[in-house]
Amino acid sequence: MPMIQVIGKEAETFEAEEGKKLVLSLMDQGVDILHRCGGNARCATCRVEIIEGDAGPMNSTEAAIRETKGITEDNIRLSCQIHVHAELTVKPLMTASETGMDPGPRPAE
Asked: Which of 19, 29, 52, 103 has the most beta carbons within 10 angstroms of its beta carbon?
């Protein structure tokens, strides 16, 4: 299983199930990350910075919302659209604790 390292208030590393959405892997490990639209690539609150590793190809849904939200950096991705397939080091960019928002509904598998 691929290893995911999370950079944030406290760095942590965990094994993630291959093929699982990154946002679900992060949530299941208790990582503080927003996902306001429930994993539908509409809000872009689940964005992460890819520090190291291969997040895989970007689909057209993710590309469209990134354009709408003005996200131009190649290393900023939506964790709801990434299916874990390789080791990654990521940094959540929007968190419930920093924004005071409810994280959002659990995204679909």
From this structure: 103
